[in-house]
Please model this.
Amino acid sequence: METFTISDRAKKTTYALIAIGLLALIAGIATGVSGQRIWANVLINGFFFFGIALAAIFMMSMQYAAEAAWGTVLKRVFEGVSAFVPVGAGVIFLVLLVGSFHGHHLYHWMDPNLYDPNSEHYDEVIAGKHGYLNLPFFWARAILFLGFYTIIQRTFRKRSLEEDAGAGLDYHKKNITTAAIFLVFFGFLSPVAIWDWIMSIDTHWYSTLFGWYTFAGMWISGITFTTLLILYLKRKGHLAQVNENHLHDMGKWMFAISCLWSYMWFFQFMLIWYANIPEEVTYYQARLADYKFLFFAIFAINFIFPFFLLMDREAKRNTGLLVFVGILVFIGHWLDLYLMVTPGTLKSEGILNWFEIGLALGFFGLFLFVVFNALSKAPLVVKNHPYLEESIHLNQ
Amino acid sequence: MHKDSKIREPLIYGVKSYKQISDDICRPVEGKATKSWYIAITFTSIVALWGLGLLIYTIGTGIGVWGLNTTVGWAWDITNFVWWIGIGHAGTLISAVLLLFRQRWRMGINRSAEAMTIFAVMMAGTYILAHMGRTWLAYWVLPLPNQFGSLWQNFNSALMWDVFAISTYLTVSIVFWYLGLIPDFATIRDRAIKPMMKKIYGLLSFGWSGDIKSWIRMEEVSLVLAGLATPLVFSVHSIVSTDFATSILPGWHTTIFPPYFVAGAVFSGFAMVQTLVLIARKLYKLEGYITIKHVEYMNIVIIITGSMVGIAYLTELFTAWYSGVEYEQYAFLNRATGPYWWAYWIMMTCNVISPQIFWFKKLRTSLIVSFIMALFVNIGMWFERFVLIVTSLHRDYLPSSWEMFHPTFVDIGFFVGTLGIFFTLYLLFARFFPVVALNETKSILKTTGADFKE
Model:
């Protein structure tokens, strides 16, 4: 039985990262970084890592629904990544809670004056959205999403450990049902959650594609991180049954979903730019006015590198290239989220310096801590899974 | 060595050997055509001729014979164009994407699906040519050198992008289809007794020798073409969607269009494949190769893509309200409750609500339910395009310009005619070409054949 123990170095690294995050936070407060900027960063990092963990559940569920076998030897790794769901849910909860009590102003629509016709801050357009953007309904949705995702994550994990102990197809069949339920709810709920937590920052703005676009970003971030984690585990001598064929499949997903994300980036941008309707184009004008370099750099990093470097078959089986592209794409999608949140919350004042980097490293440390912990709690390869043999003998 | 999991259901039923597979699949090509085939093709040819007659009438007289008016200047022509091009999608999707995903159930249905793609894209093209009015000047859409006169092409227009996307797609689809057919033609050639047949299939098979090198090359080229065809599936329908979405018309201009059109195309395409393979399965007794499991897989794709389309409908509806833009709000309210409310609700029922019955295993493994649902989906997807195009146009910005669209007998007859042409071509295909990829099916016999599984 193969178990993963966190090496001393890994342990120290995660602690060091968390310490950097805390130091950055303290230094930030001491040097007068605005509350708005602090909370914007908590949202960016919370959502980024929460999205990665959700994408791991999504990948697992999809494999159940599609009767896919290749990823069975990797299932525990996906499970490990998904372990961050409850923690990520907690971070999002905190951001929303503080916002609701006006501890920050990330969500402009939370200001009650906007809806008062007698107030000088009255905003007719936002008042028109009040039926959807109001605190009770918003919170009902948030609790539904966060609770539902946490329950599904727990259920999958629990059943996976039980399946190790008991043979039979019962667990597998139940997992297929859970996967289908997750996929349906996630399909319907994830765009809604993205409207609530990200799109409503730019309260006036709307785009029908935004939900799927952001989801594609979560998905590719999840795949990329999981690939890097698999490569790390292999380097440490684990996952002996995972060979270049499995890496090839992960590489294909990285390539394909990078293309999907780029496709949505392009069409959302192109259609809004082409039609040039004032209500819609403001979103891109804000980004092009103050964040032009970052705006195009994100597309370049997240499309050009994976597209050209991972197109070749051998590239997807090459550890070095996967790591190189993986790290770039991982950072690239963090930046994408940064650019979704910052212009709406900090206007043209958004900066990207030691504070943002420090806090992101801190969250990364926390994320790694949770994931490593989950990985070390159970054998790295599942047992009694009906597709395990097929997965081990994967060749292409 | 591949180890098929024990819980996987077989994809080939019956006691089969390689020879038996050749016998089963070549039988319709080698034997005499059945009476039912003659009846069917007589019927479809008559309908096809009726359609061709109306096409000639349209070209000869002008598109004034259609029910268009100054407000609704695009109606059945574009509805039918998008409908056909959408159907033309699943063929390459099944073939290319399932090949890339190593799905073995592809083998049972990919040949029919690819043929369907080509015929459907041809039908779509007919509408494009016809709706130009002066069809004989159709070559003006091509980027010709200036010697032909002044430069007509407008590269800023999504319609121009369509020309490139669709012609590339058609070319790649034909090459992909034909490549798979080459070894199968060679098998028919090698089995042929009549000299004429040997000669024809010999020519069609390009002298295929069946040696290992040829196979390696064919598989490599197939993979490359699949890799090219997959982004093309996305590109074609995304660009069709930009015909609408690049405008500023409420109901047309919405950013979700590209992926939502792609999902809708796959949805309707799979429904059409389902219709075709269920007929072929029955007519040619291919139950051993197109199994209930194949049908079930297709139904699962139908429910997934149908639900994606459903999410897109609801997203559009919600965002129209959320946007606070009066025109957007009206466009969607008018769709659901205006004079074309019935079209909207047919669309909703057929595309989003009714496919949900496939959540029940009993229903998604029932052939008759699958067949009826496939028809429902095709009707629903036709109405989706109709709703999208006509309801967005019929309410102009000025109420004095509000108009309704009434199809003439030419509109209706031409559409029915394209169905006739399509099915005539499919019947000819099913008579002279192997409808199941016979050599590729052999490659999965030992791993997925019921007789070979313990």
